[in-house]
Design a protein that fits this description.
Shape: globular
Low-confidence stretches: none
Strand order of the largest sheet: 6-7-8-3-9-10
Order of helices and strands: EEEHEEHEHHHEHEHEE
Number of helices: 7
Structural class: alpha/beta
Distance between the termini: 21 Å
Helix content: 25-40%
Radius of gyration: 17 Å
């Protein structure tokens, strides 16, 4: 199992009262599988994704990524593990506005000190059909093009796990469908494990498994 969540709970204070966002969520994902986390708005989907990626800390419970206990590590240790294992795609693209498409894709490789970052980033942009847009800044790219750059950046490190949070949320239906095809195609080609949050039932059904949340519980 590449991802395991065990009795994962998250509480926050709302005023002076505890508010439970997630309650004892337990599941496991095998390497190479795809899992869609679905549920109504406010059901805890994005919170769960953040915990699985170690971007947030649970109130109780544990997450194992590739056998490593995420929350037995300090923040630096979690960041290191994320850097080694995970790629990310967000609804809001999260591209750096001052960097062009190629530089945005190179970034995760440069942070790891990879020597041929530029060449690998060029190949990744080619895979998403954006070679000719390599030197354009994000503001000169359409939403669909920005999300394709974000996909290239996520896959360029050949991550074992890809976390995607509403990857088509800011795109129209036709562009969203193209991005989904591309993401699933890259996923199959690299044998990545895909965990995505979506409200799109059609997208959820394209994944091997679905995990449905209601009021912070698995249903």
């Amino acid at each position: 199992m590449i991802v395991q969540a065990v009795n994962l709970s998250k509480q926050v204070l709302s005023g002076d009262k505890p508010l439970t966002i997630l309650y004892e969520v337990t599941f496991a994902v095998e390497a190479g599988d795809s899992l869609a986390i679905v549920g109504a708005s406010g059901s805890g989907k994005s919170t769960l994704l953040g915990l699985l990626a170690g971007l947030d800390v649970p109130s109780s419970g544990s997450v194992l990524l590739n056998g490593a206990d995420l929350f037995a590590l300090d923040e630096d240790g979690r960041a290191k593990l994320r850097g080694e294992l995970a790629g990310f795609v967000f609804q809001s693209f999260q591209l750096l506005p001052a960097l062009n498409a190629l530089e945005n894709v190179m970034l995760p490789l440069e942070l790891r000190g990879v020597s041929d970052a530029s060449k690998r980033a060029e190949v990744a942009l080619q895979q998403v059909g954006l070679s000719e847009r390599a030197h354009h800044l994000p503001k000169h790219l359409s939403g669909g093009e920005q999300q394709r750059v974000a996909l290239a950046r996520a896959f360029v490190s050949q991550p074992k796990i890809l976390f995607a949070d509403e990857p088509t949320g800011n795109l129209d239906a036709a562009t969203g469908a193209q991005v989904i095809e591309l993401m699933l195609e890259l996923n199959r080609a690299q044998g990545t494990t895909l965990i995505l949050v979506t409200h799109d039932e059609a997208l959820a059904l394209r994944c091997g498994k679905q995990l449905r949340l209601a009021a912070g519980r698995v249903v």
